[in-house]
Specification:
The chain is mainly α and 368 residues long. The protein contains 15 helices and 6 strands. The strands form 2 sheets. It has a 3-stranded antiparallel β-sheet with strand order 1-2-3, with helices on one face. It has a 3-stranded antiparallel β-sheet with strand order 4-5-6. A hairpin with a 4-residue loop joins strand 1 and strand 2. The N and C termini lie far apart (60 Å).
């Protein structure tokens, strides 16, 4: 399907004697082909005013760098789509990974399909460096390959960014999305989530409570498995998120006007209250806006102390969801409590055996 025409040159104003009106001739692009269209105006002055406006937009587009376009797109995501700072930070890191600093200083209009393909291939081949050197000589820090889901997610974000930039309303890429023809590498990513088993959850839970008795911040890596919270929700908690003695925890739903409410287990409340004690309501609960890497590091440290396999925050969230269903909660209720659709729940978070176990639990409850 050809994309919307974006102006490349504005000619005129001209006068149409037969129609007795003035018009501008807009030379733009439809895909890789030049296209022309007319815009009609009741007077020459109105046509001239519109031409000045279009030419100013074209000049600004010609001088826009990749960095400037990214910041403008992030502002659109925040102001028009209601995305929060955590989501914007994820988008920024994905685009910065795809566009190294030198590339971000180049003009956006110079971005070609060949260069887009090269940038993606370089991202795929670029190893992920450890955040800091290992202190354990038996476990040295070594670069690892980039996960399929990571580079494919960055490509999807780049396509979204360039589709916005090439839209008729924005017009920063009049020749279209240079990433549109870039194919993802590595096939479909693994859609399942590695989870903890029951005994491992108990050890993870007990160790977290022991550590939190000395340092309240150590309770944070327990929140995904205890309450099913997203990483972004945890990292953007404010002091006022905790209500009624930390028995309830509120998080805003991005892009929506509502809030999701989590019930906090009684064993977690003292540590959360200690984090919030004596601080202004709007302050970040964790002191400042921390990153997802920080949360993963905390989860790894707790898993190592508990002697259980490391599972990412999403895997711990999936553990919470699956155990709730196996315990007899309805899949619909569990999906709603963590902000999932049933399709996402089945595809990414909960195994078929968990649904079967939950159904069996509900049947036995009726029989007994």
């Amino acid at each position: 399907m050809p994309r919307s025409r974006a102006p490349d040159r504005v000619l005129g104003p001209y006068y149409d004697k037969r129609r007795d009106e003035h018009y501008l001739l807009i030379v733009g692009w439809e895909g890789d082909n030049k296209a022309k269209s007319r815009r009609r105006f009741p007077s020459k002055e109105a046509a001239a005013t519109e031409k000045d406006r279009l030419e100013a937009e074209l000049k600004a587009a010609e001088e826009t760098t990749v960095q400037q376009a990214i910041e403008r797109w992030l502002a659109f995501q925040r102001d028009d789509r209601g995305n929060g700072e955590y989501t914007l930070d994820c988008y920024r890191r994905e685009l910065y990974g795809l566009f190294p600093p030198a590339e971000r200083e180049l003009l956006l209009r110079s971005l070609t399909p060949a260069r887009a393909e090269r940038l993606y291939r370089e991202l795929v081949d670029r190893p992920v460096l450890p955040p800091k050197p290992s202190k354990d000589p038996d476990r040295p820090s070594t670069p690892r390959p980039r996960a399929v889901a990571t580079h494919q997610g960055a490509l999807a974000t780049a396509k979204w960014f360039c589709a916005w930039a090439s839209s008729k309303k924005v017009g920063l890429l009049p020749k279209g999305d240079p990433f549109a023809g870039v194919e993802p590498v590595g096939g479909a990513p693994n859609k399942g989530k590695a989870k903890l088993r029951e005994d491992e959850v108990l050890r993870y839970w007990d160790t977290a409570l022991e550590r939190a008795a000395r340092d309240p911040m150590k309770i944070i890596p327990l929140l995904p498995v205890a309450m099913g919270m997203r990483a972004g929700e945890i990292l953007t908690l404010r002091v006022r998120s905790l209500q009624l003695g930390a028995s309830l925890c509120y998080v805003e739903e991005e892009g929506k006007t509502g809030e999701r409410r989590y019930k906090v287990p009684a064993e977690l409340r003292p540590a959360l209250l200690a984090l919030a004690e004596g601080r202004p309501a709007e302050e970040w609960l964790l002191g400042w806006l921390r990153t997802e890497e920080w949360l993963r590091y905390q989860v790894k440290a707790l898993a190592r102390a508990a002697g259980v396999p490391y599972r990412c925050p999403q895997g711990l969230r999936a553990t919470h969801e699956e155990m709730a269903i196996e315990a007899g909660d309805s899949p619909e209720t569990v999906a709603a409590s963590v902000g999932h659709t049933r399709a996402v729940q089945r595809q990414h978070y909960v195994s078929p055996s968990a649904f079967a176990a939950g159904a069996q639990h509900r049947v036995l409850a009726v029989i007994e």
